[in-house]
Amino acid sequence: MSDHIYKTIELVGSSPTSVEDAIRKAVAKAAETVRNLRWFEVVETRGHINGAEVGHWQVCLKIGFTLEDGE
Questions:
Q1: Which of 3, 42, 50, 55 is the most buried (most CB within 10 A)?
Q2: CA–CA separation, 30 vs 8, rounded Å?
């Protein structure tokens, strides 16, 4: 197994549907501009209350990716 060096970024995904959807949206958006995504960690979960119901989910993520040679 080779050595891996990771860099992390923090993102906040949001969704009116679910926590899982918020995570998927954040990962998909990161994948548009960041190569070598490897893992994510949910750091915080919160949401917006609309009346007596959950109106929107927000999930703070750390996303790790491997560095390429020369970075």
A1: 42
A2: 11
Buried b / exposed e along 8-25 (16+ C-beta atoms within 10 A): eeebebebeeebeebbeb
Strands (E), 1-71: 6-15, 37-50, 53-66
CA distances for 1 relative to 8, 36, 43, 62, angstroms: 21, 17, 28, 24
Asked if residues 60 and 12 have their Cβ atoms less than 8 Å apart, the reply is yes
Phi, psi of 59, rounded to the nearest 5 degrees: -130, 120
Q: What is the pTM of this model?
A: 0.85
What's the pLDDT score for residue 18? 96
Compute CA 66 distance to the chain's CA centroid, rounded to the nearest angstrom.
Answer: 15
Phi/psi of residue 68, nearest 5 degrees? -90, 160
